[in-house]
């Protein structure tokens, strides 16, 4: 049981022919419909553009928490169904397969006609789908591009409509076609005119109506049907003005319809990947893991570190720059773990020592190095250097890697300037913090609370750059 709405998309009002059937067959279901009338017609557009527009519609409907998507548009089905099915986690139903199946059920002569937009005809989607099921069947497709404009301008009952339909269908009238697929969801609004031209001997297939039977089956199959017993809600959106949409929709659906205008041009043109819920920090340094974990916690992302994977081999830091080492660690561990991995390579650059210890900061004291030995060596090397010449900088380079994509790492850096003092002060932080004095704060790094340190530190600055960019980067694939 699921009370979330079913989403319907179309380039315009045509998709309402599918909604009409849904209201009849699935009266308990909440429905959200979006018509992209501002960019209509889709038929003549290149497939890649139709796909991009379709994703924008879908991303809008996903904000309405739809449980199932119906592409109530043949052109969009032909251009985007496979892509949507691969990338979305909800069921996606197009109109072409149900329409094809119904046509095969009805034909006796083995000759099926298809009328559709230029895009759908060009894609050969109906011919391929029908002939994949029965190669003996002959399919004759005809583009009827003017039909959409007639329907969208609310002229379906006019003399113009009669003339356009008669002229367009003429090539099909002296054939042995006994079944005609209305391969555009706008066309059922012209059904009486089409039937009149084709004659009573030809069965018209309404792909959209057939589609709703598939929706009904899937709702049962995935246990998604709404059995709450509450009155169902129907919400209609259009990317153009609401007035004309409301007129056509109210008449077609036999009830007063109100629609809301929306702008979807800022929606992403492809799938929006969910951000990961866990990131592995590729570090054995508990101080770093704590600082990085604090930032990710604010974003609702939990952090693991290498201590959660004790059996992993160590990636050696053989690079000559912070970036090289951070890349080695991030890519190396991402490959082993097949998870998103963040590595930090950082260090202290002291001006009077020509930038040392730099990338050797962790290993400065050589064999048996630890924080105390590294600090002792630093102070010994700076013996006799006057206070004014003890300027230094902490640098942090962060690299975020996605498994399988080592060439797309996200790289950011941060630094903080300070002075190396001769006497240690403070108990917080780690490494060289007790000797790294921040003149503006009048304290060493080890005298700051964790939050205060993150607010000014090299790693805090790098993390802020990361925070600003990682969502986009992650979703670009
Ligand atoms: O490689 P991982 O496992 O991440 O841990 P590590 O300690 O070896 O990390 P690095 O190779 O990046 O070396 C960084 C060293 O620089 C120093 N350092 C880096 N950031 C620091 C900070 O915020 N405060 C004090 N010292 C820091 C400290 O000595 C670190 O051990
Ligand atoms: Mg290291």
UniProtKB/TrEMBL annotation:
| Magnesium in keyword set | yes
Matches recorded under PROSITE patterns: ASP_GLU_RACEMASE_1, ASP_GLU_RACEMASE_2
Q: Active site: which residues?
A: 73, 184, 345
Q: Which Enzyme Commission numbers does its entry carry?
A: 3.6.1.66, 5.1.1.3
Task: Give the coiled coil ranges.
Answer: none
Entry keywords, A to Z: Cell shape, Cell wall biogenesis/degradation, Hydrolase, Isomerase, Magnesium, Metal-binding, Nucleotide metabolism, Nucleotide-binding, Peptidoglycan synthesis
NCBIfam families according to UniProt: glut_race (TIGR00067), PRK00865.1-3 (NF002035), PRK14822.1 (NF011397), RdgB/HAM1 family non-canonical purine NTP pyrophosphatase (TIGR00042)
Chain's role:
Pyrophosphatase that catalyzes the hydrolysis of nucleoside triphosphates to their monophosphate derivatives, with a high preference for the non-canonical purine nucleotides XTP (xanthosine triphosphate), dITP (deoxyinosine triphosphate) and ITP. Seems to function as a house-cleaning enzyme that removes non-canonical purine nucleotides from the nucleotide pool, thus preventing their incorporation into DNA/RNA and avoiding chromosomal lesions. Provides the (R)-glutamate required for cell wall biosynthesis.
Record's subunit section: Homodimer.
Name under which the protein is recorded: Multifunctional fusion protein
Native species of this protein? Lacticaseibacillus baoqingensis
């Amino acid at each position: 049981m699921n009370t979330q709405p079913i989403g319907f998309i179309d380039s315009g009002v045509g998709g309402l022919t599918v909604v009409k059937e849904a209201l009849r067959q699935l009266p308990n279901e909440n429905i959200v419909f979006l018509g992209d009338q501002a960019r209509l017609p889709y038929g003549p557009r290149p497939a890649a553009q139709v796909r991009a527009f379709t994703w924008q519609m879908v991303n809008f409907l996903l904000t309405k928490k739809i449980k199932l998507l119906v592409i109530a548009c043949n052109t969009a089905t032909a251009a985007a169904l496979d892509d949507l099915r691969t990338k979305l986690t909800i069921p996606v139903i197009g109109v072409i397969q149900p329409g094809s199946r119904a046509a095969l059920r009805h034909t006796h002569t083995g000759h099926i006609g298809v009328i559709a937009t230029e895009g759908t005809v060009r894609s050969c989607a109906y011919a391929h789908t029908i002939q994949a099921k029965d190669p003996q069947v002959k399919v004759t497709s005809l583009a009827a591009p003017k039909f959409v404009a007639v329907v969208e301008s609310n002229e379906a009952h006019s003399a113009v409509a009669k003339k356009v339909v008669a002229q367009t269908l003429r090539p099909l009238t002296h054939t042995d076609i006994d079944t005609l697929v209305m391969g555009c969801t706008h066309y059922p609004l012209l059904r009486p005119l089409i039937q009149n031209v084709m004659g009573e001997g030809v069965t018209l297939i309404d792909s959209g109506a057939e589609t709703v039977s598939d929706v009904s089956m899937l709702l049962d199959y995935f246990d998604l049907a709404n059995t709450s017993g509450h009155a169902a809600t129907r919400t209609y959106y259009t990317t153009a003005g609401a007035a004309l949409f409301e007129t056509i929709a109210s008449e077609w659906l036999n009830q007063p319809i109100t629609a809301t205008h929306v702008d979807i041009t800022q929606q992403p043109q492809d799938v929006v990947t969910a951000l990961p819920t866990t990131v592995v920090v590729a570090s054995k340094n508990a101080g770093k893991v704590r600082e990085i974990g604090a930032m990710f916690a604010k974003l609702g992302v939990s952090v693991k570190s290498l201590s959660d994977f004790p059996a992993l081999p160590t990636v050696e830091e053989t690079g000559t720059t912070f970036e090289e080492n951070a890349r080695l660690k991030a890519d190396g561990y991402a490959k082993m773990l097949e998870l998103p991995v963040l590595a930090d390579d950082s260090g202290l650059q002291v001006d009077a020592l020509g930038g040392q210890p730099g990338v050797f900061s962790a290993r400065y004291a050589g064999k048996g190095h630890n924080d105390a030995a590294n600090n002792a060596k630093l102070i010994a090397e700076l013996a006799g250097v006057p206070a004014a010449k003890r300027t230094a900088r902490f640098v942090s380079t962060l690299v975020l890697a996605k498994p399988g994509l080592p060439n797309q790492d996200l790289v950011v850096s941060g630094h903080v300037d300070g002075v190396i003092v001769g006497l240690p002060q403070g108990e917080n932080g780690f490494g060289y913090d007790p000797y790294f004095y921040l003149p503006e704060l009048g304290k060493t790094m080890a005298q700051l609370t964790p939050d205060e340190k993150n607010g000014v530190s090299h790693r805090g600055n790098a993390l802020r750059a990361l925070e600003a960019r990682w969502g986009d980067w992650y979703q670009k694939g």
